Amino acid sequence: MAIDAWLPVGFIAPDGERVRLALQDGLDWQIYETQGGGRILFAKLQLAKRWFEAGLVQQSQMSEFEFGGETYFALSSGQDYMLSSVEDCRSPDNKNEALSFAESFRITREIDRESALHDAIFVEKISRLLPTYSLSARISDDIVFGTWLTGGVPVSVQSFRRLRSLMSWLGAPHLRDVLGKGGFQVNEKIISHKPAAPAPQGQELPKEADSSAQPTPTGFTLAGRPQLEQFFNEHVVDIIENEVRYKALGIDFPSAVILHGPPGCGKTFAVERLVDYLGWPSFQIEASSIASPYIHDTSKKIAEVFDKAMQNAPSVIVIDEMEAFLADRQAGSGSSHHRVEEVAEFLRRIPEAIQNHVLILAMTNRIEMIDPAIQRRGRFDHVVKVDMASEEEVRALLAKLVADLPCENDVDVKELARHLAGRPLSDVAFAMREGARLAARAGKDKLDQASLQEAMGIASAKEKNETSSRIGFI
Fold first, then answer.
1. pLDDT value, residue 119
2. Residue 128 in contact with residue 117, Cβ under 8 Å?
């Protein structure tokens, strides 16, 4: 909708800037672009006086002038500061922008604890959110802040996990800093890569894991995969949480890891849980976003991901379907010279990234296709095979899923585990969801064994390739 501008194009503001188009407006305010590339806020007398009386703006910070029989006040922001309605603001591009908004939010609330801010004007130059006192329905501060951070998703900053998933580029420790600057408290445990207390003299370091060793008692858990859980605890989490002790013995940061195994074995599930636990910024390298038909373009995009991860360290790079980029260079033919360039880029970047505190996690279904140079020690020190879940592992996952739901006493996870053993973990989770759906459809308020068995019957029909009119189990 076109804005009915108060001022003509070329109007000279009190500070000498020439205005161009009106970009945003409200009942008593308008924001214009200037010919110099900056922005200017114009407010009518009545609105400006409310800001002055509330102590949000000093009258000396705004320039008064007359035009067309109306009194206006102007505040210029220039090119280096953000000036926009909170409702129309873009999401932040970096942590500094987010911190600037957070500081403005907190300072505004310290001055004015009552006025709604969902329709305020963010004036970064003076670190304020100026209320516009419109008649629209009020939105709580936690949702206003979360909506601005995510660029329009109405999520409360109290829902830290959801907010973190929407802003994975920032990382949990940095996001916590932003929320703290804005006056919000985060109670969730977050791992930061910082020095820990040194180990007492004479204390032995953890020994290399073996199949009989007990799981390391740390905070990271991986339901249904105890051995993989133990591996990550010993080779990643413990090194991060006890940096000083490991660094004294020459181990500065966890080595890169390859998880390989058949589709559906749980590789992606494990990596997602670890990334979620660490709470660091995560960056993806996958064919859909990186691969390019143009010469040198793929290796250039790979380099950009590594650069961005190192700039935001500590962080995580997840390489999915790594055979698409790191296949054996000797196995190609006509287009193999592109593959040589891509592999060479990884060979150069992986050690550099690890030295700069970037954790690298790669996954593949075809480990035999991966270039041998990539698998050498110093690049990927750990090549871990992930098999399909055993009956015991499926039972552990089912127990975790059942514990989160209201269930009847007749639910028997042992029987379900016997049917689901050897299947993808996604199928296990789906069977639980399908059982819950069937129970709810039948008017029950708790999950029962009959509903789960009916869901398992759907799974069995699919396994036997029987024709079914049901939609769902794939």
1. 92
2. no
Residue 357 φ then ψ, to 5°? 65, 45
Q: How many CA atoms lie within 13 A of 236 on its CB side?
A: 30
pLDDT of res. 428:
79
Q: Structurally, how many domains does the chain consist of?
A: 4
Within a domain: 14: no
Q: Is the pLDDT of residue 69 over 80?
A: yes
C-alpha to C-alpha distance for 327 and 321, rounded to whole angstroms: 10
Could you give the CA distance from residue 112 to residue 133 in angstroms, rounded to a whole number? 12
Contact partners, residue 336, CB within 8 Å, separation at least 6: 329
In a shared domain, residues 419 and 442: yes
Domain CATH number, residue 455:
1.10.8.60
Q: Is residue 408 part of a domain?
A: yes
Tell me: do 298 and 267 sit in the same domain.
Answer: yes
What are the helix (H) ranges across 112-242?
141-150, 160-166, 172-181, 226-232, 238-241
Q: Is residue 238 located within the same domain as residue 373? A: yes
Q: What are phi and psi of 234, to 5 degrees?
A: -80, -40
pLDDT tens sequence across 243-288: 888 888 888 899 999 999 888 788 888 888 888 888 788 888 887 6
Residues 361-373, mean pLDDT to the nearest whole number: 84
In this structure, the answer to whether residues 266 and 356 fall within a common structural domain is: yes
Range(s) of the domain holding residue 381: 226-385
Bridge pairing between strands 315-319 and 282-285: parallel
- Could you please report the per-residue DSSP string of 57-96? S-GGGSEEEEETTEEEEEEE--SSS-EEEGGGPPPPSSHH
